[in-house]
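Technical annex B. To support the medicinal chemistry partners, we prepared a structural model of the target in complex with arginine, based solely on the information shown next.
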Amino acid sequence: MISKRIHIMSDTANNTRSTPQAEKPWNGRFTEPTDAFVEAFTASVTFDQRMYNQDIDGSIAHARMLAHVGVLTDEERDRIIDGLEQIRTRIHSGEFNWSIKLEDVHMNIEAALTDLIGITGKKLHTGRSRNDQVATDIRLYLREEIDHIVAELKRLQTALIDLAEREADTIMPGFTHLQTAQPVTFGHHMLAWFENLERDRSRFMDCRKRVNIMPLGAAALAGTTYPIDREFTARELGFEGVCQNSLDAVSDRDFAIELTAHAALLMTHLSRFSEELVLWASAQFNFVELSDSFCTGSSIMPQKKNPDVPELVRGKTGRVNGHLISLLTLMKSQPLAYNKDNQEDKEPLFDTIDTLKGSLKVYADMMQHVSVNKEAMREAAIRGFSTATDLADYLVRAGVPFRDAHEVVGKAVRLGVDSGRDLAEISLQELQQFSDQIQEDVFEVLTLEGSVSARNHLGGTAPEQVRAAVKRARERIA
Ligand code: ARG
């Protein structure tokens, strides 16, 4: 009741201005004030204020369009723009008082504008609704964030390319089932993750096209009776097109779901990579050392150096996966057009962006400071009989059918296991007891270097191929 009375009094006292803190734009229809808890429960300003820049940009473009079609005078347009810019400065410097009574970022800014410039401020909302306004704000916000994400991705990709180039000749065991399979180069392994991230990058850039379409003009749901020029507003805001159906424009959030799905997939890639780094940094593998500045110690065990960054990124993946499910579930039962449910899109979306950007940043920085323990990798590749397939291929080239070759090599490996030797350490005479096709030149294929350089084709692990792939990778992200 109190807020209603303040509303009436302020309107009587000064018809061109009202007290923004007490004003509800729908008060005309209501006889009772909003319940205090409901007011807090339904408000979004605590989190949607992060879109204030986009909200102001959208309002300025809308005001320009309204003047362009003659709904506002040029003078009114300029007063509005000037007022909005003052508000932007105030928010930016932390001097703006956000009020949950005004529910969201849109009404807070609009009320402040009216407070600042008087009745003209009330004209800004002509031909628009918060429904098309919020959809526009999110799209502008995400468009900008996609550009940040893509930039961070490129920084991480560059770190991987640099590492691949440095370690093009470094040999490590390649794994399947986490069992030593065949030797590969560390550079080749890094470029595998580059490829994953390159697909992620292309997904984000593709999604940007669907994000960058303008809902404004849809108004609440059905469009507006004013002679608006949507193409004009779209040009002002740098949108590539306008939403073609007003109902769809205010209710669609699939661009946000799509973006979150891409984020979940990217996080999944980082999580897999993290799992490798955690293993590799362990005393048991000892393949890599992460820089001290990306690790922490233990408060009780002095010997510990924990790979917290990859562990946390792996953990945060669950959070982004959860946000994807939240958004899908949020949408699944909504009839057209706008529903208040959609206000719930922001927190999962914002947290997805923050989590992803943070993970990318820390990864890009961390990967610039990884040191590689070539000796340990080499040792592990030798211990795991990783050139066994090369011996089988050698026998096949000498005319032995592959299945028979497989059996011969199996026996040689058995001997190696029993006598604690790698294949290259077994004498020619001993090898020949399994097959008389084995000659002195067998040792060329049994070495790790021989094994990797023999895989010299597009997409193969040979150092020569890795260097060529590094060159192509740099061009692809240029
Ligand atoms: N805060 C709302 C949101 O985030 C803005 C749109 C509200 N529109 C409405 N008619 N209640 O979705």
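Notes passed to the chemistry partners:
The mean pLDDT is 94.
The chain has three domains: 2-126, 131-377, 388-446.
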